[in-house]
């Protein structure tokens, strides 16, 4: 239905070829007793005998809203059977609801479009389950951006729990995303709903119905939620300044999390655009649909398989490394990769196989839900795709050239697009207050921020590039304003911060609301974090304000998730370069937000390293910084590990003693970790109140993170899985650089053979 000029129900989109009519009781008598040739009798028209003794016509139909095509053939109706009113009218309300009511002044709604949503969920409408009629209100995507026919993806209330929503694929019983249960304020797995100042969310569950609805605090804002053709639900708001819909949030966050988004034999990649590509040897089945972002048709083979053709030729297998493989394979007990290949080769229905530590797996028929993963993703497997032998004739000679050309082209396009976005934002000036620019950033005037901060009077903190002040906008939104003070370095820092964090959104990354650029005045505006930075809580002397273990563990996990997003999920890999407690901010619920991206480095996905000058903070710097070699994301992993030891102890990883010497807490911590005396590391202010398994997990992760050899350090994605309890972690070795500081080395290393050190659950860091 209509919001702005873009969101409407299907019958409004087809007004050029369709029309609406009401089968209402309007008396249209011919006033005669005769029907001539080519005349018709319909609706309430009648013919009356000359003496008015008899009248011929039709029984009065109910008051239904009917949709007819050009030939006047009914194609849709409200199907009301209980209404015989002569005064029914249809009204389009200001909230976008199209209603059928009993008379122009009546408030009794006979039928309403809000009860039958298509792909659009407007403020004031409901998505839920009617317990009396046993009917579900479902949001369903369009087939593609030009065809409003039913698509593959639908959002509906889980009938079993009645408090959480699922997104399903192809109307199956399986789902690939869930909102999590309603906790009284938000859905537990949609943290974006927390602390927003635009939407008022509510969930109702009573004897008649269960439903979710929302409203806007500011009724002048135009917003809608859609079940998009991408398989994601998207909350959009209308920007009158640019005449565009602005994406507020979407779930699931990553396109490749949508089940089978690229169709059969299509593979999804989060690192390049477009997301979907066909496997080698395949081509899009429906090219026009593919271009309209409808990949449901998937891909088809360029050359038919030879198996069963009787020509004596055999098929072969194309190697696809680092793949998320399809679900539900068939498993075989074989002794080698050759035997696994044979098991697939001699079954004409087999289209792929994999052989690794998980054994031999083969897949029959179409391959769905394939995803290209990063090289260090532990979930990646090598998949062998079955192709006709002729597909390999020239592939070996051209493979490197083709891949190189594609990667180079993609890199150039990404860089050009990135540059254009930054330039456009940079050139926008603030006139008469804040303006919204594309990407949801606000451009503020310097005087506006000066007024908001009361002339920068309440200082929250400071760093090498400037100070941070508390402020309040006219709408009562509390903000944190970073005022850059170093003119020589401020320009570079400013551009880095805006271009980096201004383009990304994650619940564990601080959100940049906007910026000001007026001559030498450079300011950045962030969401205000009422609980300040982590260091102010970790290193306090007062026991009354000490962070409990559960909060510390959740902060460690949230920080890891934020860094994993920067390293692995952004279109450009981002190395933060300065991870420390001062740069971890805490919101009202102590949810951690990685902040201060002034030193961050963007690394193209086609590169694994970046050479840069030394940066960061003493005590958290990885050894490779000092040696001057090109760094990777593992530099952040090292800093994170150093910080984990501080989570445990509530102490800085290096401290100055009374005699002026520096004491390294790290050496003692590493030795105790290997000995198994881990609880001795725990902050004494906790009084031993901590989960022993979680403490062990944190200690071991920390020791792996600070290994001298960066190849031995885990990725942040792997760390998240360990902290979540999905994977276990083996006992780490003591880093070589610390061994010289550890007494009784032989005793320490003998503990490596302790049975407790060999125990593991599902998977371990090698």
Automatic annotation (TrEMBL):
It is a single-pass type I membrane protein. GO terms for molecular function: ATP binding; carbohydrate binding; protein serine kinase activity; protein serine/threonine kinase activity. Residues 1-23 form the signal peptide. It comes from Nyssa sinensis. CDD domains: B_lectin, PAN_AP_plant, STKc_IRAK. Residues 454-727 form the Protein kinase domain. GO terms for cellular component: plasma membrane. It catalyses: L-threonyl-[protein] + ATP = O-phospho-L-threonyl-[protein] + ADP + H(+); L-seryl-[protein] + ATP = O-phospho-L-seryl-[protein] + ADP + H(+). It comes from the Eukaryota. This is Receptor-like serine/threonine-protein kinase. It is found in: Cell membrane. The lineage of its organism: Eukaryota, Viridiplantae, Streptophyta, Embryophyta, Tracheophyta. Its EC number is 2.7.11.1. Residues 1-113 form the Bulb-type lectin domain. Keywords: ATP-binding, Cell membrane, Disulfide bond, Glycoprotein, Kinase, Lectin, Membrane, Nucleotide-binding, Phosphoprotein, Receptor, Serine/threonine-protein kinase, Signal, Transferase, Transmembrane, Transmembrane helix. It is an enzyme of class 2 (transferase). It holds the Pfam family Pkinase. Residues 307-388 form the Apple domain.
